[in-house]
Amino acid sequence: MNNSIYEKKSRVIDNVVHVLIQLSTFISVSLLVVIIGYICYRGIPHFSFDYLIQTTSILKNTVGILPNIINTIYIIVVTLVIACPIGIGGAIYLNEYATNKKFVNIISFTTEVLAGIPSIIYGLFGMLFFGGVLKLEYSILTGSLTLAIMILPIISRNAQVALQAVPKSYREAALGMGSTKWYMIRSVLLPSAIPGILTGVILAMGRIVAESAALLFTAGSLSVLPKSLFGHLFSSGGTLTIQLYLEMAKAHYEQAFVIAFILILIILLLNFIAKWISNQFDVNKRG
Amino acid sequence: MAKIQARNLNLYYGEKHALKDVSLDIMENKITAFIGPSGCGKSTFLKTLNRMNDYVNNVKIEGEILLDDENIYDSRVDTTILRKKVGMVFQQPNPFPMSIYDNVAYGPRIHGIKNKKELDVIVEKSLKAAALYDEVADRLHSSALGLSGGQQQRLCIARCLAVEPEVILLDEPTSALDPISTLKIEELLMELKNKYTIAIVTHNMQQASRIADYTAFFLVGEMVEYGKTKDIFSLPQDKRTEDYITGRFG
Question: Would you tell me which of A38, A263, A274, B142 could form a disulfide with A202, CB atoms 3.0–4.6 Å apart?
Answer without folding.
Answer: A274
